[in-house]
Amino acid sequence: MSRTNIELDERLVKEGLRLTRKTTKKDLVNHALRELVRRLKRKQLLELEGKVKWSGRLKDLRKSRT
Fold it and tell me: What is the pTM for the complete model shown?
């Protein structure tokens, strides 16, 4: 972990704390960063649709999950 000083929009912080039920600004910022990274990774993955050749059987893939 590193320590960083940043200025935050206090209205956004209050609303974020209320909506997420986080109790500290640190938890809120970490939560927001994790969510941002998760969403961007998902977006990148979805952008690959139709661009990657896949071979295999979906039925077999589903069986391996059970």
Answer: 0.73
